[in-house]
Structures are given as C-alpha cells and as structure tokens.
C-alpha cells in the first residue's frame, strides 16, 4: 500500500510544466513550477508546516495553542491544515481587499477570520499587522506566526522547493522568476539555486504601489512608491526580513491589468488554472525577455489556484468595471453562429 499518514504528507513534490502558447515570443525553455498541486492549493503549505514544526520544536507553540497570523489567505490555508492534523486553533486577520472566496475557504477549514481595512498605515491600530500582534498578546497560549519576519518561511523553500527545481531541471535551470510578497519563496529558492550555481539569475515580480523594486535599485525606502493596488499576494509597503535582496538580481513591476489579463491567458492557453501572481509572473517574463536566450531554462513559480479568484479576474463584470477587459466588437456572424 502507498498512502500518506495524513494530508500533510502530500505537501511538496509538485510538477514542473512546460509553458507553450502563453510564452510565445520568449526565446527560452520556460517551465512552470505549479504549486497548486499542494493540498491547500498553494506553495504556502510548505512554509506553513515548517513554521509550525519549528515553533513546536522550540516551545513557541504549545499543545492546544492558538495560531494567530495576518494572512492574505494562502498561508492561512496551510496553517489551518497543519492545525487540524496537530490539534491547534487558528485566528486569521485579513485585509478587506482579499477575495471573499479566500475568506470562505479559511472558514471552511475551521479558522476564525477577522477582516481589517486595507487603506491604513501598517502602524495604525486598525491595520492587520497591528490587530494580529495585539491579539497574540491578549489571547492566552497563542503564537503569532509573523510570516514576514519568520526565518522558517524562507527555510522551507531553501530545504524543499529549491532542491526540487534543481533536480527536476537536472541542474540546467538558468533563471528563476517569482512574485515577491513576504520574500520567503524568492529568498529560499534563490539562495539554494545560487549556492548550486552562482550564475543562475533570480528575478522578482513586483507591483506598482510596492516598495521592492526601488529599494533594490537605490537602497531607498520610498513612501511615494506606496499606494493601493489590486494584485493579491505580491508587493509590500514594508520590507519583510524574509526578503534577502542579496540573492535577487532584479525586479520588474507588472500592472494590475496585465496581471489579470495574463492570469486568464494562462488558463485559456495552457489549461493551468492559477492565481493573479502567476499572471504577473508571465507578463513579467515578457518584460524581461531580452535577458533570455534560446539555451536558457527559465523556471517560473505559480503560487496558487485560480479558484480563489473566480469572482475577480475570472469574472467578466469584475474585469469590465476596472477597464481590464478590452471589449471585442460584436460581429453579426459570431452572434448568429452561437
Ligand atoms: N503569490 C501569492 C498568490 C501569494 O499569496 C504570495 C504570498 N504572499 C506570493 C505570491 C508571494 O510569496 P512570498 O510571500 O513567499 O514572497
């Protein structure tokens, strides 16, 4: 018999899939690490379990404890799965920008979800950073995960995702491209790959409204770069400790519209149903295409599933309201044909 002891045993070993149509015009072999194959449908299962195990090991998380985190959903899902198997309670503090699907999914796996306003300073007592920190001091036997600064986040990718990419490409990977939020994914994988081969280039995908690109290029934390944006999961208005700028060669910023349009293209042209940071990554690849040659093996990581965005970029009305849907001209023959 071949089975996992519980659902946590199915985390990792996700497939690498060649992209075809959606990368036409890019002169390289482009392979997607499709992290939706994890049980919580995102790469975050890996770091969530690692953060829980490390906190158990050094006593920060005790039997019957409550896990508290400010999470945009994917980390919450991973933490909730670990909590179910290991017997913890979960409270997640989320911003009102996040999709309703994400909140519903977290509640479905037993978590309590608290919604906070997006458009307040991180230091504002109403922000999701402040609320999660405060709750962790008020609720007895609780542990505040803090994925932004928790080193187990990047370590999970250094120990698992990086080696998987190296082995799946027989060490032939030349570039790694990924969206950056907490920085755990890019820093853990980037560190591992560069230790294996320092010539590998690591590119981060950033959003307009986020501080990463400017900070990387100038060392300046520019508050003027900060404004609200639509793309979920990537870009920040803070510098998380998990972003290791020393393993990142550069950033490119992708607009909300391009991220949304390319998320739909990935589903329609490749049959890979993934979330908006994957769309941002593929558009980012096109923006970076002069960096690639035909002998290159470019790995791009798709963080999460399209199911969390059915009411957003996969919904025509939502797209149209934001001016993201380039209206087709209705032709008589198409109407008749239908
Ligand atoms: N894409 C999505 C959909 C995410 O939820 C996240 C996590 N915030 C990221 C990308 C970025 O990953 P990381 O936090 O490891 O930088």
TrEMBL record:
Keywords: CBS domain, Lyase, Pyridoxal phosphate
Origin: domain of life: Bacteria
EC number(s) per entry: 4.2.1.22
Recorded GO MF terms: cystathionine beta-synthase activity
CC cofactor: pyridoxal 5'-phosphate
An annotated GO BP: sulfur compound biosynthetic process
Top-level class of the enzyme under EC nomenclature: lyase
Family note: Belongs to the cysteine synthase/cystathionine beta-synthase family.
UniProt-recorded name of the protein: Cystathionine beta-synthase
Organism: Flavobacterium sangjuense
Positions spanned in the full protein: 1 to 338 of 453
């Amino acid at each position: 018999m071949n089975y996992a002891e519980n659902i946590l045993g199915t985390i990792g070993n996700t497939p690498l899939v060649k992209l075809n149509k959606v990368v036409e015009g890019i002169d390289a072999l482009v392979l997607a690490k499709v992290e939706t194959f994890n049980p919580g449908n995102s790469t975050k299962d890996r770091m969530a379990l690692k953060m829980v195990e490390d906190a158990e090991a050094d006593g920060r998380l005790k039997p019957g404890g409550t896990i508290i985190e400010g999470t945009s959903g994917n980390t919450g899902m991973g933490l909730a799965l670990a909590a179910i198997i290991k017997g913890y309670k979960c409270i997640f503090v989320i911003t009102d920008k996040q999709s309703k699907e994400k909140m519903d999914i977290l509640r479905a796996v037993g978590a309590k979800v608290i919604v906070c306003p997006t458009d307040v300073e991180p230091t504002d007592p109403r922000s999701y950073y402040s609320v999660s920190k405060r709750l962790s001091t008020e609720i007895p036997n609780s542990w505040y995960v803090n994925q932004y600064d928790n080193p187990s986040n990047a370590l999970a990718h250094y120990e698992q995702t990086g080696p998987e990419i190296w082995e799946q490409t027989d060490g032939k990977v030349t570039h790694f491209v990924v969206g950056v939020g907490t920085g755990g994914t890019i820093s853990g994988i980037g560190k591992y790959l560069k230790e294996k081969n320092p010539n590998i280039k690591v590119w981060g995908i950033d959003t307009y409204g986020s501080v990463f690109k400017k900070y990387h290029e100038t060392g300046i934390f520019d508050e003027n770069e900060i404004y609200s944006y639509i793309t979920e999961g990537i870009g920040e208005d803070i510098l998380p400790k998990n972003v290791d700028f020393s393993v990142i060669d550069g950033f490119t910023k992708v607009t909300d519209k391009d991220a949304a349009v390319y998320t739909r293209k990935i589903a329609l042209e490749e049959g890979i149903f993934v979330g908006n940071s994957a769309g941002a990554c593929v558009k980012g690849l096109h923006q970076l295409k002069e960096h690639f040659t035909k002998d290159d093996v470019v790995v791009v990581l798709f963080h999460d599933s399209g199911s969390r965005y059915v009411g957003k970029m996969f919904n025509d009305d939502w797209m149209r309201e934001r001016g993201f849907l380039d209206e087709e001209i209705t032709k008589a023959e198409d109407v008749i044909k239908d």
